[in-house]
Structures are given as C-alpha cells and as structure tokens.
Write a structure and sequence with these properties.
This protein is an all-alpha fold. The chain has 2 helices and no strands.
Length: 86
C-alpha cells in the first residue's frame, strides 16, 4: 500500500472546487468516495501485517470525505443561490 503524493486538498480523491459545482458532479464524486471506502475496507481486512502505508491510506480516505463534504456544500450553495441574471 503506497500513499499518493499530495497536490492539494481533495486532489487525492479527484474532488476540486469549481466556479459552478453541480449535483451531477456531487453524485459522481459520492460514487467515487464510496468506491474508495470499499477498497480501503477490503485492504484493511487483508492487511495481516499492519503495512506502514495503512495509516496514510486511512488518512487519504478521511481527507476525501472532508473534501466531498465541502464540495457538496458548494453545490448546494450554487444550486440555491440566485445568479445575477435571475
């Protein structure tokens, strides 16, 4: 198990802030997050030797959860805030 190099908040899991977040993007990111959580659970279940990268992998998934929560809030705000044209 190896940790990816960090490129910025949320970059490990592919969630990045954009000017206009949409619920479609939120749904896609949620599916990705669920996949990461499933993979991590499977890896942890098979990690009989307590691999040194385990802590980094768990931290990366937690970072993804936090990034997803921020991204979801941005999408909600973008969806509920009227634009200047409205």
């Amino acid at each position: 198990m190896t940790a990816r190099p960090r490129r910025g908040p949320g970059s490990t899991c592919g969630i990045r802030s954009r000017d206009r977040a949409t619920y479609t993007e939120v749904e896609e990111s949620e599916v990705d997050l669920q996949r990461f959580e499933k993979w991590l659970a499977a890896i942890i279940a098979r990690d009989y030797f307590d691999a040194p990268g385990g802590a980094a992998a768990r931290a990366a998934v937690e970072e993804c959860k936090a990034a997803f929560a921020r991204f979801e809030q941005l999408a909600f705000h973008a969806d509920t805030t009227p634009t200047k044209a409205e």
